[in-house]
Amino acid sequence: MRKKVTLKQIARELDVSISTVSKSLKDSHEISEDTRQKVQAFAKLYNYKPNNIALSLKNKKTKTIGIIIPEIVHHFFATVISGIEQVANENGYNVIVCLSDESFDKEVINMELLANGSTDGFIMSLSKETMQKKDFHHIQEVISQGMPVVMFDRVTNDVFCDKVIIDDQQAAYDAIQHFVSKGFKKIALLTTVDYVSVGKLRTDGYLKALRDNGIKINEDLIVKIEDIENCSNKIESLIQNQDFDALFAVNELFAVTSIKLANNLGKKVPDDFSVIGFTDGIISQFSTPSITTVSQNGIKMGRKAAKMLIDRLEKEEEDELYTTEIIETNLVLRESTTT
Amino acid sequence: MRKKVTLKQIARELDVSISTVSKSLKDSHEISEDTRQKVQAFAKLYNYKPNNIALSLKNKKTKTIGIIIPEIVHHFFATVISGIEQVANENGYNVIVCLSDESFDKEVINMELLANGSTDGFIMSLSKETMQKKDFHHIQEVISQGMPVVMFDRVTNDVFCDKVIIDDQQAAYDAIQHFVSKGFKKIALLTTVDYVSVGKLRTDGYLKALRDNGIKINEDLIVKIEDIENCSNKIESLIQNQDFDALFAVNELFAVTSIKLANNLGKKVPDDFSVIGFTDGIISQFSTPSITTVSQNGIKMGRKAAKMLIDRLEKEEEDELYTTEIIETNLVLRESTTT
Q: Which parts of the sequence belong to the HTH lacI-type domain (chains A, B) (predicted)?
């Protein structure tokens, strides 16, 4: 039996990217005619067929769900997987997890791997590189083969499929409203650089809430962090040089880091300023003081994604209508905010 | 094409456990003759063959490694996966992860799922239930089919295969030695109940270190915790009623919980007592004070396990000699211990 050639092998042989191979096989005009011909000839020679096992097994159910996530050392993704597992088990499905490590190529390779007869459908959150490239060929391909895909958290409008998200802007807005209701007006923001879409949305929510409450935006209170490893200087400078009574951080690492640095500088949370973080992970629960946080409800998100996928897999007829479910967030009040 | 019947389906049809089906198919005398005959007849009728795809594909490499771990919302397992991913990627292998959720049945099902042509070999850590049952048929089966298995952390002597572990007893011993070298003699222990093997080994290391240093063992300073959710009373009672100057906790949740409870009771770590935890996770890094901890080197463990598996997969001849690698632990000094 001759070994099946993969996208990855074609890319390596011809010294082009996986994306180029994928687009060439679809005859995309983004790729030069010369390259397209070369790729197509090679694919023909080695009998490449896109996910050909998947095609032949279209009616053979594996009762397995493939999950592709960017990373695993991340409490949020781990809780989403737990939620997916719960619903999968309740319905007699197995779950297989692959990691993209934030790489486009690995996302494509994993998708090809799992689409080759191992799974009935996918639940996925996009890698950073895929979002930057805006290349979703691999996802569109499995969908066109009849394998449903549900995206969660990091999604794109460029692919028609079911999606589960939280309303990041509204969640941040609610956190700021909480501060305002406690009488705070000098509210600082620790956020990411703008190309991280969820960071951007949370920043937008912060700005909107301030505007809606007639609070003037003070750019000196907004700190954008590119690299969590080297953020101490920026946060220390904020704590030492600026006057604020509350701080909203767009993730829990920023929140806990600001509390630790304040401590070192002789300031106390929540006596000197209150802190609200984002993502209800174990850091927020176990830090001292424990951290008030926007809960993303990862378990609920995973459960919903699994339910949407299984519903679609078990429906007799194909349904062309896709839905986007918005999971409600809520504020978990803890010691880092005054009551 | 007729669908292949699985162990799980046979178990469900005949209303027996997966373990019973597996043993019956191997003609094990642990199972009554009546049940064995019933299972074998059913299996024959439905043309069951153990991992028959795997057998036929023995010479077809998938270049994929299957990982089976007990749970994912656990920093240690997540870091091991990262280590495996690193070495797998360096060697052109893909990685697929399945979770047993601490269930024997799920471990068996996942193994069967992945052995059906999806992977070349396995890296796994046993589920609690598998360790309690001491039933390793499913693992012996894939090994006998020529698929190598590497076990890490939670391993068993009952299966011959490559293993990667840390020396839990020695690691605990070293932590206590550190306390003794700082002049502490009243050392408390927060540990698990004895049936958790790693907890037991760490307790043994604590006891041995005390004995070797001529320190009398005080049972009042040893607290065994069954349930992390309901451990506060026991720990508070230790802090309020006992006199000790150092505390060793066999995991980071116990360590951080004792620090928080001490705080609530008006005691300060490390001024009133020093704390060393186990597992260098994000809680230890980000708690206030940050926690001195025994690092299990999950990344290193994952890298080593992946290297052992890939070496075995790429060797021309079968090697009957298995090795057990011991990963060195080290103490990461932080604020919870006096310097």
A: 5-59
